[in-house]
Structures are given as C-alpha cells and as structure tokens.
Amino acid sequence: NRVLVLHGVNLDQLGRRPAAHYGTVTLDRLERGISEHAAELGLRVQFFQSNHEGAFVERLHRADDMADALILNPGAWTHYSWAIRDALEIAGLPAVEVHLSDVNAREEWRRVSVIRELCIATVAGKGPDGYRDALERVREALVSNEA
Ligand code: DQA
Questions:
Q1: How far is it, in rounded angstroms, from Cα 48 to Cα 141?
Q2: Interface pTM (ipTM) of the complex?
Q3: Which amino acid positions bind substrate, per UniProt (predicted)?
C-alpha cells in the first residue's frame, strides 16, 4: 500500500520555527523517521512539500494515480484554504490530518480546520510521533478496505 505524505506552507522551514511548538527536527529528518515507521508497517511512502497553494492543489488532483491514502499537514492552509479542502475531496482517498503542535491549545484561529470533515482522523500535539499514529490509522483504514 502506498501513502503520500504532504507538507504545506512553511514546513520546509522546520528547524527554524519556534521550537516550543515544533521542536528542532528538520523536514528532512522528519521524513526519514516517517519512512522508517512506514517500512515497519509495510507501507510505501512518498513525500511532497510546497509553499505554493496551487502546486499543493495540483498534487492532490494527481494523488489517486499513485497513492492509496494520504497523510497531510497543510500548515496554516489548514485553517482557511477552501481550495485545498475541495482538492482533497477530489482526491477521494482516505486521509489523516497531522499537526506537530497542539493546534487546539494555541490561538483561536488555529482551532479551525477546513479539512477535518474529510479526514478519517486528526492527530495534533504529538510532534513527530504523531506521524506514526497517522501511519497506523492509514494502515487500519486500508486493511479494513481489503477485508
Ligand atoms: C502546523 C500548525 C499550523 O497552525 C501552523 O500554521 C503550521 C504547522 C503544525 O504542524 O503544528 O505551519 O500545521
């Protein structure tokens, strides 16, 4: 089973963002950790990151070509991009939303997620470990689909 892991705006800057919320891990290291967990779970992963909303949307349009499920952390787009919400609907794949920080314990505007209703699960506030939870949720969803 193939999982596409998408990171949105500013997530390429991990390592330079407030450590209190995001820790010190870089995107490169985060992705390597995700690859290791995925291998343990028997999942194949691919990664995508963009700071451009249109590129992110177009990646979602093509997602079903090569992925069976999605894990996405759209960064700040999470809170207001109806375009990404609609593109996720077009992708039509099981998706898990992940946030490194505890978005519910920060500013009020971060409590809103325009993608939540399209996701089978949301994981927030667990740092890099949250992606392991997300991979497990994705695997459960794919296995129950096969049954
Ligand atoms: C984030 C939380 C968002 O509110 C923020 O804009 C980000 C990262 C997270 O992973 O905690 O860029 O998605």
A1: 22
A2: 0.99
A3: 73, 79, 86, 100-101, 110
Atom of ligand 1 nearest to the CA of 10: 12
Ligand 1 atom index nearest CA of 102: 11
**Full-prediction pTM beyond 0.90?**
yes
pLDDT tens-digit series, residues 2-36: 999 999 999 999 999 999 999 999 999 999 999 99
Task: Identify whether the C-beta of residue 47 lies closer than 8 Å to the C-beta of residue 7.
Answer: yes
Task: Specify the number of domains making up the chain.
Answer: 1
Ligand 1 near 7 CB (within 6 A): no
Confidence of residue 99 (pLDDT cuts 50, 70, 90): very high
Q: Which domain holds residue 109?
A: 2-146
**CB of residue 35 inside a 6 A radius of ligand 1:** no
